[in-house]
Amino acid sequence: MIFYYEVICISCSKKFRVYEGTLKYKQFKENMKGKYTCEECGHNIRLEAIKNFFK
Predict the structure, then answer these.
(1) Phi and psi (nearest 5°) for 22?
(2) Number of Cβ atoms within 10 Å of the Cβ of 27
(3) Which pTM value belongs to this model?
(4) Sign of the Cα pseudo-torsion (42, 45, 47, 50, in order)
């Protein structure tokens, strides 16, 4: 049985699941009131940060 939590992305406001054994699951368990992003939004934010770093 795999445990998961459904979390709302702060960027796109869609629900996504964090599964047991992942880093996001551990972070969510430690701080359930934190702000989290889905995989796609997290990737886009990371790319924008890299682009702005080289400007």
Answers:
(1) -95, 165
(2) 13
(3) 0.79
(4) negative
Per residue, what are the HEC states of the chain?
A: CCCEEEEEECCCCCEEEEECCCHHHHHHHHCCCCCECCHHHHHHHHHHHHHHHCC
Q: Say whether pLDDT at 25 is over 90.
A: yes
Mean predicted confidence (pLDDT) in 33-54: 95
> Residue 34 and residue 8: Cα distance in Å, rounded?
10
Calculate the CA dihedral of residues 52, 15, 27, 10 and round it to 10 degrees. 40
Please give the span between the terminal C-alpha atoms of the chain, in angstroms, as a whole number: 47
CA separation for the pair 22, 39 (Å, rounded): 12
